[in-house]
Structure formats: C-alpha cells, structure tokens
Amino acid sequence: MDITEKTVKEDVAGKLASSVQAFVTSQPQVPDLTTVDVAAIVSVVVSGGAQTEKKVPAFFPADDETAKGILAEIGGSAEIIVVPDSIGMSGENKAITLKSDDRDTYAGLITTAAQKFANVDLNALLERVKAKTILVQQRLMSGGDLEMCGTIWHEYGHVLHEPKETGNVFNHELTMIAKHRKGDLATWIANFRPLRYLARYVSEPGIDEMINTLKTILVPDEFEKFAKLRFDVVNKTKVDEKEPVVTTVTIEVQQLVEGTTEDIWRKAGLVGEIVIDGEMTTGKTVSFGGCTWKVESHYPDEADEPDPAFDTFRLRRLT
Ligand SMILES: [Zn+2]
Prior knowledge:
Bound molecules: zinc ion
Distance between the termini: 98 Å
Largest sheet: 4 strands, antiparallel
C-alpha cells in the first residue's frame, strides 16, 4: 500500500472527525456544542490553517474597511473598529466613541470577546482601542446605508467636538446628512433622530448652531414642530429650577393641626396655592395634599358659615 501525505491526512481527518463528533455527542448538556461545525474544525486542523492563517488587528476586517470608507466620505479620519454585538453600548446604541475614562472597560470587553476569534491579533487590536476610537457593533453594518452613515457620522461628531450630546455634535451629524444624504434627511429624523430627542437631549455648547441648521434643512412645518418642542423643554426646565413644590404632608395620620387655612397649609409642609376640596364645616371631610382630613371644629362660631380665609380650624388627618 502506497502511503502518501494525502492518504495520511485523509486517515487522520477521518479519525479526527469521528473523535470530534463523539465528543460533541457526549456533551448534550452544553448547548453551544450542538452547533459545532465538525467538518470545519477538521479542515482547519488538518490543513494546518490554525497555525498559518495570518492574525489581524480586527474582528471583522472587511467591515472595518466599510466603516473607514463611510468616515472618508465626509473627509473624516478616526480609528474605527467593528466589534461583536456582545460588546454592549449604552442603552440601545450601536456605536460609541471612547473616552479616556471608559477606554479600559471596553479594552476588557474586547479582550473577552476576542477569545472566540482565532484570527484576532489581540495586542495589535488593543493598540487601536484609545480615547476617541469609535466602536461600532456589527449589527449596524447589516442595517441600511442611512443608519450606518448617520450613526458613524454622529460618532465622528464626538471625535471632533464633545463626548456629551451637544449642539455641536448634533449639528455635525445633521449637516453631514443634509450634505451627503439630503434625500434621506426626513427619514433620518423620522426613524433615527426624532425632533423630540433633539429638543430634549441637546446640551451646550452649540445649541444655537444646531437650531440654525434645523431652520435651514427642515421644511417650515417641521421646524415649527421642533421650535415648539424646544420651547416646552426650555420652559419645563425653568419650572424645575424654581423651589420644588413640597407634596409630602408632614402631619401624621390621626394628628391634629390647628390654625387658619394658611397656617394649616404651612404646618402640613405644603407650599404653593392653597387648594382644598370639600366644605370646611365641622364634622365634614375635606381633602388636600393628597390626604383626607376631618374638620373637628372651627372658630370663632361653629354655628356660622365658616370663612376659610379668617377663621381658625382644627383638622385631624384621616389618611
Ligand atoms: Zn452621541
């Protein structure tokens, strides 16, 4: 029998395949193993591919090139790495621009994820993980062109400007989409960057610049919509800055409180306009401050019609 390298390989491959299959079958409690591609493992081992395949400083080299191209389209240049979806971003975000204070966290996540990628040159990859490196989840790269571009251009705004969601960052994002994907601008705003979001989450610096951009790129009706949303947000903020309205009643259940309605309001820990539901007459139940109260008595004369502005009352908190 003529033994050649080929027949040796075939023999080894056959034995290896049954050995891998036997191992997988013997571990039914490990769910990951049921999806093991036996033929792929055998082929890599027998061809020596695991040793000879060149390692690269990337998870998905082709996707990294695509992402770089999207940056280049707007004249941008930054380190951008497409990472497995298992690397979480904040909330539902599919991309993040690293800062010096979260760089190490993401380097750790990348190190863990790289253990499942035989071809990743981890040390070289980690050299790319720096402050202002953009990380993009791979699922973004299978979304549409608009989502990819808009998201990556937004992140590049963080590279150029602030790490926060500032007017400068949104201004950059919107300007780039208006310039390079004008026809898709309305879709971007409808699906990915609602006006409500811009109005609510934008922070200084650059809010005025962003508003000017919106004025230029939105149709008048849409801009009006934005302006109204922004007005509401700004005025809500002003309300929040005022002394907060105390709604917690400081009188205990069954405790008595005595005085004019104004005294009672103050003693109960309430501020703002006095609003009492019900009739302030002896024996009746009234409600205010989210509690119910029994009018035990009122002065000066219980028989007369009480005058809540001047009379004094004794109220017991019931609930
Ligand atoms: Zn952002």
